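Input for the complex:
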Amino acid sequence: MSSCTTVEELGNEVYVLRLGHRPQRDKRITTHVALVARAFGARGIYIAEVRDDSIKQSIKKVISKWGGSYFEISDGVDPLTIINKIKSESGCIVHLTMYGLPIDNVINEIREKCKKILVIVGAEKVERLYYEIADYNVAIGNQPHSEVSALAIFLDRLWRGREINICFPDAEYYIVPSRRNKVVKRVDRK
Amino acid sequence: MSSCTTVEELGNEVYVLRLGHRPQRDKRITTHVALVARAFGARGIYIAEVRDDSIKQSIKKVISKWGGSYFEISDGVDPLTIINKIKSESGCIVHLTMYGLPIDNVINEIREKCKKILVIVGAEKVERLYYEIADYNVAIGNQPHSEVSALAIFLDRLWRGREINICFPDAEYYIVPSRRNKVVKRVDRK
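Predicted:
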């Protein structure tokens, strides 16, 4: 935990908006999107329109063990309400899509211009509307892969890899990196 | 497609071994792992022990449209057979796990030493055995996230981001990056 980076030190304040979650089909993918959001330094995730308690439960379990109680998770939200809120706070809307502009061409501008960022990740199809609302449509390569990997690479480029050493000061447990073992320690709060 | 990087130019020859796939629960996650493998420059994926035609079909559909016919996908494989094969070819076994050594401490050594690499990604629990067999147990951060994001960040670090511009010369379609639209072109082979 020595040379870790706090979420504040990362700089930009990032939230994720998950569109098109289908509870049956996407349960695990959306859970992984949320886990990436937390582990790579976002402040929270909004799941548009539908409610899915099982995802909230999974993430809360992770937070109670590994920290990050600031991390917000809201489901059943209206996407346009969130988008307008971020816009009204001078934040940027970044939509990750394989059709967008290459990340390496836009990431420096995004890092410098956007203090607050809402990153939109969709499921299979994203409505045209979001391409128009977005300040940046950004491609993590122009090949199909995954919203999970797209979000991870976006945040990794945004923070130039510093988020890999993120610290969660309220964690109950932490890992000591090991060549061949699983070394988990309980944080001593005395 | 102008300044793209071919899979050969990336250098190391990488395959992915997916452990612990549970057809009901992991269908979409394993599909996303396979899509990341292809899009980020791996040569193929082995799915251990179980067979799952739906994953093979999804990936083959992607390949027929976006290219990468060299990309191998085999299911129902015996993991130790694959591991021993790679070892016999002087390849390295890299196991991605949140308990491992920080990627930034080991990636240069892996890039230089390992011409051929088998990257093992598990589902929830990975047997002790694999920690012992692996030449490198590598952590993409010591926080829980996803095998999808872990694989993407590993390959992105391995190839220093060059894989983002990978070319698939046998693609039928390609995307022209766009600020706000979806621009897909058919490759003209005349």
